[in-house]
Design a protein that fits this description.
The protein has a six-stranded mixed β-barrel with strand order 1-14-11-13-12-15. Strands 3, 4, 5, 8 and 9 form a five-stranded antiparallel beta sheet that branches. It has five helices and 15 strands. The protein starts with a helix and ends in a 5-residue tail after the last strand. The protein has helices spanning 3-23, 49-56, 108-114, 158-164, 203-209, and strands at 35-41, 44-46, 64-67, 74-83, 88-96, 103-105, 120-121, 132-135, 140-143, 147-150, 153-156, 171-176, 182-191, 198-202, 216-220.
């Protein structure tokens, strides 16, 4: 069974489990229990087509290393070096497809290693963020802004949002069980037709709570955004 088939089977099994919990009275009336799988996001960047040419040469294109969980998105073969005031990080992978703005997403420990202090932001909200030097095999970029620590967020479709009783832009809590359990506050709900249900957190958060890709976590609908 290939990776795509395994993911599809896991989605089907998860949905059947959730529906059975609802039938058994373990979910609020008319709603599925709000349980989401985790996707741990390592440091990476998104680039514009223009910046791709600067880094990898005129006519260069992103090539697929492997698909990632969100439909139509992929980890590219192409990697770069990030250079900050205090250090550098090599082999940082680009995610495709191209974006309208070049954006670097870091964990807090990555930012300390580079010597920058990016804010926690929603993807695409880059105004006033720190810049960095990006070095590719062909050329280098001196970005004036673009580095963020990605806000915790849950991708979902409109159907998921209706089933779970939440809306785009709402913030919720996520409960983590286990020896290093606790709560994640201020988790943003992001709704779009082409999204796949998944909670995205960075590697520092995953390590701190002792969770990994594919872990299922319960969401508490307490916060409003």
């Amino acid at each position: 069974m290939n990776e795509a088939a395994r993911k599809e089977l896991a989605d089907v099994v998860r949905r059947l489990v959730l529906e059975e919990l609802a039938r058994s009275g373990l979910a609020p009336a008319g709603r599925l229990p709000f349980v989401v799988p985790v996707g741990v996001s390592a440091r990476h960047l998104h680039v514009t087509r223009e910046h791709m040419a600067v880094l990898f040469g005129p006519g260069s294109e992103l090539s697929v290393h492997r698909p990632i969980s969100q439909p139509g998105q992929f980890a590219a073969n192409e990697q770069v070096t990030l250079v900050g005031p205090k250090g550098s990080i090599e082999r940082v992978r680009i995610l495709g497809p191209y974006r309208s703005k070049t954006q670097i997403e870091l964990a807090p420990s990555d930012a300390r290693r580079l010597g920058i202090t990016p804010p926690v932001r929603r993807s695409g909200d880059l105004a006033g963020t720190p810049g960095i030097t990006v070095v590719g095999p062909y050329g280098r970029l001196e970005l004036a802004e673009g580095c963020i620590i990605a806000e915790r967020h849950i991708h979902m479709t409109p159907d998921d949002a209706r089933a779970f009783g939440v809306r785009d832009g709402q913030k919720v809590k996520v409960r983590v069980d286990g020896e290093r359990g606790g709560f994640m506050d201020h988790v943003m709900i992001r709704v779009r037709d082409d999204f796949k249900l998944e909670l995205h957190i960075d590697t520092d958060e995953a390590n701190g709570f002792g969770i990994r890709n594919g872990s299922l976590l319960a969401v508490i609908r307490e916060e409003e955004g």
